[in-house]
Amino acid sequence: MTSIQASLQALYDQDFAAWIEATVACLKARDVSSLDWNHLIEEIEDLGKSQRRELKSRLGVLLIHLLKRCYVALPEDYRGWGNTIDEQRRELVLLLEQSPSLKRYLAAEFDEVWTYALRQVRKDYPAVEFPDDWPFSREVEALLTQEVWQN
Known about the structure:
This protein is an all-alpha fold. It is built from six helices and no strands.
């Protein structure tokens, strides 16, 4: 291990922003021998995890608000739920434009997110009859565009 690598490893725990700057400087200089490889690999892996967490979180919020908008008869809340639906859809579109491969992840995680969303709305609105299965299209384009409450 070089002294620069040791310094970078120590910097990682002391000042993350400074570690990033130093790592970027090494990368730009093509100085691969000085890189803190273990932390660099860990951070790159975490970037992917972060995107997947964001996708699941936004999909969950979207499904919850779509369910509320479709099944909860509180017209005074429709606008707020609609705004949340629009916001989550916009952010999901941006995320999927940046990382199109996440569409496969969305499809793979849909059932788990649906279960969470259904549990949440049933807890919040116990008197409302919600479907056991997602009654609309699971296609990404449909999830991001269809106003299912108008069907």
